[in-house]
Amino acid sequence: MRQTTHEVTTELDDRAILVSLVTQEQKRQDAYDPEYSLAELIALAETAQVEVLGTLTQNKEYADSKWFIGKGKAEELKEMLQENGANTAIFDQELSGAQVRNLETYLDVKIIDRTQLILDIFAQRARTREGIIQVELAQLSYLLPRLSGHGKNLSRLGGGIGTRGPGETKLETDRRHIRDRIAELKRQLAETVRHRTLHRERRKKSGVFQVALVGYTNAGKSTLLRQLTAADVYVENQLFATLDPTSRQLKLPSGVEIVLTDTVGFIQNLPHDLVAAFRATLEEANEADLILHVVDSSTEMMPIQMRVVDQVLEELGAHGKDRVTVFNKVDLLSPSQADMLTTEGEFLRVSAFHEADLKRLVDTLEAHLAGDSKTYRIPADKGDMISLVYRVGEVLENGVDGDDMLMTVRVNSKEYDKIGYMLAAYDQSQHAQGDRGENTEHV
Known about the structure:
Elements (H helix, E strand, L loop, with lengths): L1 E3 L10 E8 L1 H4 L6 H14 L3 E9 L11 H14 L3 E4 L5 H11 L2 E4 H12 L3 H15 L26 H37 L2 E7 L5 H9 L16 E6 L5 E6 L9 H6 L1 H9 L2 E7 L5 H15 L6 E6 L6 H5 L7 E3 L5 H15 L3 E7 L3 H10 L1 E8 L2 E7 L2 H11 L16 E3 L1
Parallel strand pairs: 2-3, 2-4, 4-5, 6-8, 6-9, 9-10, 10-11, 12-15
Antiparallel strand pairs: 1-3, 7-8, 12-14, 13-14
Helix pairs in contact: 2-5, 5-6, 6-7, 14-15
């Protein structure tokens, strides 16, 4: 299948033909749709500021070990590149170093695969030090085993001061430098992860209820975060508009404050090197008390996108977390289409721009936070504990009994465990239990 455009412009440096190979193995995968995957590749290319001049699709039983696509299709691709004045070929699947080298030599253009394209977009989006480190680590981890396939110049002998050695080639020098750089980046990332872990532990001890927004890229997570918390976050109708995670506080009607965290969007065939590098960031979902799975209900590929998110959450070990599915963008559907949106478990149908829908979402968060009422006996001079109780629960009643405060609080079981963790830090033997009732926790 061959498609080309009729107008060729030269405003962008990268002018590409996109190539997709559909194998029998891919056809057997439930979460794979070749037409949608190619359409998504076009969107990725445009996001990376690449001018798309045409597409080429081949159906084949399996990938060719030398050319990836068949030799005849490679000849057809060469003709397309020359006819359209393209200088890049972007493949919808991941290529080996040998395949890149062979195609680059035969086609005489830059060869990029889906993984490299996504990594390039992430490199453009990274703003924080952590994001920049994670992207560079993913890029180098991807490049190292494929180094021999990226440019003839990499195999030439090194020259100039600092590169001379007993027969050391530039390729070997590049490999050594990349390994050293990977080791340094991993060291820096480990330090960043350590700080992030400390922040998580502080949040746990403070008893703040944590909610993670997860979902396919461009599902509207950042828009929801901005509408709910007035957060100053970048919002745009494009893939991976935001990369670095953003956490903001949300005050519920009961007065309790919770933390909402917007995570990086998922996508089909999310590069493994990227998942590994961003694991510390993605694990915000794993550490959350509740996951809001934000779904773009306006796209025909909604079922595939939902399965992709499920797969990534399972890989992260967060599949069993409490979850609410939020079908977003219902304002783009007809009422009958919106009524058909359903899934297993708890779900909501919302538009991030409708105040009533946002209120229902906040009420849902409040319901997950609420739980059984407990009565706590806390020494009146323990202001930090009293403050904690107000933060994590709804204080229904309080009173004074001697030197202690009696506080009846509605709190869910998870928050009760957090308060219990803090209570255990005090010496319970200082207080006589007396007749305090079966539902009274004391310090």
